[in-house]
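Feature request, filed as a ticket because there's no other form

It would be nice if the structure record came with a short human-readable summary line next to the tokens. Right now we just get the raw output. Example of a typical job, pasted below so the devs can see what we mean:
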Amino acid sequence: MPTKIPWTDETWNPMHGCTQISEGCQNCYAKTMAETRLRGKAGYPKDEPLRVVCVKTKLTEPHNWRRGRFVFVCSMGDLFHDEVPFDFIADVYSVMNQSPQHVFQVLTKRPKRMANVVGRLKKMGRPAGPHIWHGVTVESLRYKSRIKWLQKIPGIRFVSIEPMLTGVDMREFLEGDKRIHWVIAGCEKIRRSPGRPAPMDWFRALRDQCEAADVPFHLKQAVVNGRVKNDPILDGKTHVERPKPLAVS
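Raw output as currently delivered:
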């Protein structure tokens, strides 16, 4: 469905639900939405709205979208959660491979399983197409092992640093054959209010690292005059870059 997330065009949720695994999850927007607006509706369990649920009826939704678009996969969950069966994930990848008119943005906090699944599918003769981008969420470099797992996956790789809980030095990941191709950053938002602070200097330093390595940078949101603003101005301009999609053979 259409979304207000500024770095994508559409969200597609063939599964939803998750469990918290690190401090970045503390004020999860998906948890808030599941427990308030969605509890007991649209397949969200009333007793445990963030329970992992696979929704087979939504698997083929991208086939119905003729115009190519950027698609954020599983914005309301983590496709690589342990409770999501491999066969279901394989079905999701089949749909993505059958829809090369779109760019699919697959984001996880569980990149070890993501790397293993992508490798297993390749061995089965079902490699992920170049229009499938893989990314990890890293709220601080305490979790840089997530990036190292991501580097094992071919194609366009991206890192979302949201909520940004510390300053982050990404320079070691922005060069070489295994480099990260896109960096997204943003402050925390709790409903309409700022959450834990993320000074503009943190974003400025990250922007400078990306510029020096010629890596696209998207500053998704930051606190401006006490309020969270999407695509804020930093040093006189907005930073809404993203990589060019790779050609699909």
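Something like this underneath would help us a lot:
The first strand starts at residue 10 and ends at 12.
The first helix runs from residue 29 to 35.
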